[in-house]
């Protein structure tokens, strides 16, 4: 710990555990250490080579145009079809019988196996159906579906005809859905009667009906029958099984410009009002495809990959649909929740399909740890060879739990840092190259120029903390915020000159590896020290009784801000009188007295976005006894009542 009061972000946590790649994996890895050298010698040449993994109808003339920053263009003049790259070319190569999707519905026994040839046929029919409904290239189509194969079919059908999709997570309300449909002025909405959640049908169509009534741009609503429950019907509605079922199976994919808009997607809304992030075609697919191949070391002939994200988030776009399918992967897609009908459902699915590559989020990992080690222990998880994490910083102890209990103490873990805005992974270990460190995303991927800088925009030395920035454009970068170029400039490009600022804090350890430290908006200023939420949370989670925690800085008359920690205990732990003191001392022992929480609140749940990320700004409101800010992206509003009541009863400790 340093005593310089003006450091940008303190570096308090030291982690010394290291895990080398398994030798067999390193020997056959898709990407080796050479890639870093190639990319640093010739960054654009490196990305050209990655782009050559795809099929281009017309070659590009120029790799990057960065003459008008921050508006980048990649692969200028190139033309390609995204759906052709994800489907037709695999079938043409003789792999039509390969399974693309093992779909597992939430109700037991509800399953479908979809080959590449079958998926291609469905996408061609859906492309014809959308064309018949009047959709042309450049139109926007909103997609509001459960996790069923039709969600991937709908996205690929849009891509095939050059329509720009706007997927909205199926758990969102009328306000969120109608707002996103209107912002994108979507012409068609694709939805379903409903899906299954927590053991029962959960309707979607009523939310669409109300939203469409508020959205004058919508001409048609295409409805998949999933649950079979009764639905109200309007004259805009068309059944998917009529329109797609009756459509022709012939459809030739036409190529689109590399900079043609592929999709708009709204961020998850952890910090503020969601932003409509625009991604285009050639650069996006290049990086989504390359990173999936490199970071998961995907062997399409033998691997079974499973990403547990919802298609409504960017992870579902890049690592369920575009990355894996462009690489010809076989993957599992699951409709439901991890605890239906029992808390071992995920592990039962891994065992059933012999999943080899698993990609999930820290929020899920901490929940599994809370539920207990005995649950995954009942299943055969020996097929797993690489585990991935995304969405939030992963606490070192959660990382170790994941490796030991899910990865049999053997599998590499790839902690992948990226954002809706970056479109694809940016910082991550490579499983056959990197000696991994629990809790660190480690190194920018080949071709990515990430850095950690201080307030003046200068790189911090090893051991220092600051702001995570990107110094060079990358192929899958957002092109703008839909309809709001000025907000694009203001939000990402105005803090530092000629650098993209991601909003996250980070530090560089003594080896130069990067550790994400949470959002800079959440940083706590305690007695002149800028302390990251992540380090204090990780210290709390390293206590054997703690499953999950969130910390915030609350105004304090003496120290500026005081650290208030909200803690969820592991399932079997009964709190006793001394526990909060014990936890406060534990943090002080790990990080130094400066980071000792002023107050610890034991809570049953934490406020999270619908993608499972902790919303610290709401906890800050509670800790400072303010009325709550915007709660529209909150998963469960009852949680806040429980926490506020507890807060009113609790009192600060000495
Ligand atoms: P909003 O921008 O509206 O507040 P959001 O940032 O939660 O929403 P996403 O694009 O889904 O929306 O999330 C990206 C953010 O998630 C990153 O900026 C970072 O804070 C966090 N994140 C993602 N992966 C990691 C990771 N591996 N380690 C640390 N943080 C991560
Ligand atoms: Mg964000």
Automatic annotation (TrEMBL):
Q: Which reaction does it catalyse?
A: acetate + ATP + CoA = acetyl-CoA + AMP + diphosphate
Cofactor dependence is on: Mg(2+)
The Acetyl-coenzyme A synthetase N-terminal domain is annotated at 33-86
Location of the AMP-binding enzyme C-terminal domain: 535-613
Mark the residues carrying the PTM N6-acetyllysine: 613
Q: CDD domains from the xrefs?
A: ACS
Listed GO MF terms:
acetate-CoA ligase activity; AMP binding; ATP binding; metal ion binding
Is Nucleotide-binding there in the keyword field?
Answer: yes
Answer whether the UniProt record assigns the keyword Transmembrane to this protein: no
Start and end residues of each AMP-dependent synthetase/ligase domain? 93-474
Instruction: Report the EC number(s), separated by commas if there are several.
Output: 6.2.1.1
- What GO biological process terms does the UniProt entry carry, in alphabetical order? acetyl-CoA biosynthetic process from acetate
Q: Where does CoA bind?
A: 197-200, 315, 527
Q: Which residues bind ATP?
A: 391-393, 415-420, 504, 519
Q: Which GO terms describe its cellular component?
A: cytosol
**Which keywords does this Swiss-Prot/TrEMBL entry list?**
Acetylation, ATP-binding, Ligase, Magnesium, Metal-binding, Nucleotide-binding
Reported modifications of this chain: Acetylated. Deacetylation by the SIR2-homolog deacetylase activates the enzyme.
Pfam families (alphabetical): ACAS_N, AMP-binding, AMP-binding_C
Q: What InterPro entries does the entry give?
A: Ac_CoA_lig, ACAS_N, AMP-bd_C, AMP-bd_C_sf, AMP-dep_synth/lig_dom, ANL_N_sf
The superkingdom of the source organism is: Bacteria
Kindly give the PANTHER family that the UniProt entry links to this protein: ACETYL-COENZYME A SYNTHETASE, ACETYL-COENZYME A SYNTHETASE 1
Family designation: Belongs to the ATP-dependent AMP-binding enzyme family.
- Protein name, entry field: Acetyl-coenzyme A synthetase
* Provenance organism: Phytomonospora endophytica
The record lists the lineage as:
Bacteria, Bacillati, Actinomycetota, Actinomycetes, Micromonosporales
């Amino acid at each position: 710990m340093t005593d310089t009061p003006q450091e940008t972000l303190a570096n308090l946590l030291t982690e010394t555990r290291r895990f080398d790649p398994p030798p067999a994996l390193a020997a056959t890895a898709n990407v080796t250490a050479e890639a870093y050298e190639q990319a640093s010698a010739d960054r654009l040449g490196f990305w050209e080579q990655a782009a050559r993994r795809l099929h281009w109808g017309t070659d590009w003339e120029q790799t990057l145009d960065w003459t008008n920053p921050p508006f980048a263009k990649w692969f200028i003049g190139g033309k390609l079809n995204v759906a052709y790259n994800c489907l037709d070319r695999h079938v043409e190569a003789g792999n039509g019988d390969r399974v693309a999707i093992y779909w597992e519905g939430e109700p037991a026994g509800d399953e479908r196996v979809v080959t590449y040839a079958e998926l291609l046929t469905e996408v061609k029919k859906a492309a014809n159906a959308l064309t018949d409904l009047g959709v042309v290239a450049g139109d926007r189509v909103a997609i509001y579906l459960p996790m069923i194969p039709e969600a991937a079919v709908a996205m690929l059908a849009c891509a095939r005809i050059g329509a720009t999709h706007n997927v909205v997570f199926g758990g969102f309300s009328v306000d969120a859905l109608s707002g996103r449909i209107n912002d994108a002025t979507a012409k068609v909405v694709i939805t379903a009667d409903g899906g299954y959640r927590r053991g029962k049908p959960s309707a979607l169509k009523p939310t669409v009906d109300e939203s469409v009534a508020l959205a004058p741009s919508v001409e048609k609503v295409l409805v998949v029958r999933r649950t079979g429950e009764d639905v109200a019907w309007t004259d805009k509605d068309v059944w998917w099984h009529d329109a797609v079922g009756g459509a022709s199976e012939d459809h030739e994919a036409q190529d689109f410009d590399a900079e043609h808009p592929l999709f708009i997607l709204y961020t998850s809304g952890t910090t503020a009002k969601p932003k409509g992030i625009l991604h285009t075609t050639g650069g996006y697919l290049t990086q989504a495809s390359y990173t999936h191949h490199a970071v998961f070391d995907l062997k399409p002939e033998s691997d079974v990959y499973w990403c547990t994200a919802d298609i409504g988030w960017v992870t579902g776009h890049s690592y369920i649909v575009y990355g894996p399918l462009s690489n010809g992967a076989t993957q599992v897609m699951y409709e439901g929740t991890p605890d239906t009908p029992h808390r071992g459902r995920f592990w039962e699915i891994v065992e059933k399909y012999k999943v080899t590559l698993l990609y999930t989020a820290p929020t899920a990992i901490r929940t599994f740890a809370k539920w207990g080690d005995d649950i995954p222990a009942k299943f055969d998880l020996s097929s797993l060879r690489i585990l991935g994490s995304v969405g939030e910083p992963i606490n070192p102890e959660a990382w170790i739990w994941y490796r030991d209990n899910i990865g049999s103490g053997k599998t590499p873990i790839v902690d992948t840092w990226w954002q809706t805005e970056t479109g694809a992974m940016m910082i991550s270990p490579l499983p056959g190259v990197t000696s991994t460190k629990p809790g660190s995303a480690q190194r920018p991927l080949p071709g990515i120029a990430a850095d950690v800088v201080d307030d003046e925009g200068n790189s911090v030395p090893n051991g220092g903390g600051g702001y995570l920035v990107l110094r060079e454009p990358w192929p899958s970068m957002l092109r703008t915020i839909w309809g709001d170029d000025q907000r694009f400039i203001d939000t990402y490009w105005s803090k530092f000159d000629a650098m993209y600022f991601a909003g996250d804090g980070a530090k560089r350890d003594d080896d130069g590896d990067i550790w994400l430290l949470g959002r800079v908006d959440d940083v706590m200023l305690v007695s002149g020290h800028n302390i990251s939420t992540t380090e204090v949370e990780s210290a709390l989670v390293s206590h054997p009784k703690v499953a999950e925690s969130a910390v915030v800085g609350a105004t304090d008359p003496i120290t500026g801000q005081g650290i208030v920690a909200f803690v969820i205990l592991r399932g079997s732990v009964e709190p006793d009188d001394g526990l909060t003191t014990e936890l406060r001392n534990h943090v002080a022992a790990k990080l130094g007295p400066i980071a000792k929480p002023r107050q610890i609140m034991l809570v049953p749940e934490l406020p999270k976005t619908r993608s499972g990320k902790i919303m610290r700004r709401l906890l800050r409101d509670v800790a400072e006894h303010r009325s709550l800010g915007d709660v529209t992206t909150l998963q469960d509003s009852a949680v806040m009542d429980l926490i506020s009541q507890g807060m009113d009863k609790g009192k600060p400790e000495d």
